[in-house]
Amino acid sequence: MNLIFLGPPGAGKGTQAVFVTKEYGIPQISTGDILRSAVANQTPMGVKAKRYMDDGLLVPDDVVVGIVEERLASSDCDGGFILDGFPRTVAQADALGAMLHGAGRAIAHVISFEVDHSVLLGRLTGRRMCRSCGRGFHVLFDRPSVEGRCDACGGELFQRDDDKEETIRRRLDVYDEQTSPLKSYYADKGLLRKVDALGTIESVQSAIQCILVGR
Ligand code: AP5
Ligand code: ZN
User: Fold this and answer.
1) Is 146 exposed, middle or buried, given 0-12, 13-18 or 19+ CB atoms closer than 10 A?
2) CATH number of the domain where residue 72 is located
3) What single string gives the DSSP state of each residue in 46-64?
4) Which of the residues 118, 130, 148, 209 has an alpha carbon 20 to 30 A from that of 41?
5) Is the CB of residue 9 below 6 angstroms from any atom belonging to ligand 1?
6) Does 131 participate in catalysis according to the annotation?
7) Is 11 touching ligand 1 by the criterion CB < 6 Å?
8) Which domain holds residue 15?
9) 11 annotated to bind ligand
10) 141 CB under 6 A from ligand 1?
């Protein structure tokens, strides 16, 4: 099953991808995680991407399309995948469509995380990420069992550089301008499935499960 998770920063895409990956055994492909790892390793791509990410802007389309093309060619995507945070522009969606068409693959569902922007600031300022495995936690809504440590791997938890109020506001504006048009893009193709992402982590999880099992 090939899925796209679409939604604004902090909507819960990464949080829910963990559950779907576990349940269906398909990998989560997060362009944000791949870019952050390139930044941490100071690769040429990471050096280029960092200044866009620090400013809350989108990294150029050709860079992310290249990342996804390479990642989808990997054999662990043969049984399906979750694209988390990609596509984010119409140009990226067109490139993905061409890529999948050429490989005889198709998207099953585009899950749109419907959430009011007013809750996102609180979700993102309280988010803590694992430095080793990238899992996200929250200081109020998803607390780790041991303060400052990841439940999955014991790694150190940290706050993302772009989870600062000013940068979050920029990321939300960028989402509204450049990414939200993808909702009608995929609705027109009959692929858009909306979930109410304002509820608890568990309620969002069951809403997604209903879509995936066709209820
Ligand atoms: P990226 O890493 O993709 O960030 P994002 O889209 O801004 O989304 P987030 O990861 O911040 O949010 P999420 O929806 O996954 O929320 P989460 O589950 O963590 O991108 C970062 C940057 O990389 C971009 O700004 C851009 O520069 C670049 N980039 C990446 N992809 C790109 C692309 N395709 N093109 C161009 N540039 C690209 O949840 C957030 C918090 O809320 C957590 O603490 C969680 O515990 C908590 N939470 C989750 N669900 C709930 C709930 N239901 N109730 C209460 N709390 C909840
Ligand atoms: Zn971890």
Assistant:
1) exposed
2) 3.40.50.300
3) HHHHHHHHHTTPPPPHHHH
4) 148
5) yes
6) no
7) yes
8) 2-115+179-212
9) yes
10) yes
Query: Do the annotations mark residue 193 as ligand-binding?
Result: no
Residue 105 a catalytic site member = no
Phi and psi at residue 187, in whole multiples of 5°? -65, -40
Position 12 in a domain: yes
Atom of ligand 1 nearest to the CA of 113: 14
User: What pLDDT, in 10s, does the model give residues 16-65?
Assistant: 999 999 999 999 999 999 999 999 999 999 999 999 999 999 999 999 99
174 Cβ neighbours under 8 A, 6+ residues apart: 56, 57, 58
- 31 Cβ inside 6 Å of ligand 1: yes
Query: What confidence tens digit (pLDDT) does each residue in 80-95 have?
Result: 999 999 999 999 999 9
Reply yes or no on whether 160 is catalytic.
yes
Q: Is residue 155 part of a domain?
A: no
Whether ipTM exceeds 0.95: yes
- Cα distance between residue 116 and residue 63, in whole Å: 30
Q: Can 88 be counted among the known catalytic residues?
A: yes
Tally of CB atoms within 10 A around 98: 11
130 known member of a binding site: yes
- 3-state secondary structure (DSSP) of residue 118: helix
- Structurally, how many domains does the chain consist of? 1
What's residue 134's pLDDT? 87
Establish if 120 belongs to a structural domain: no
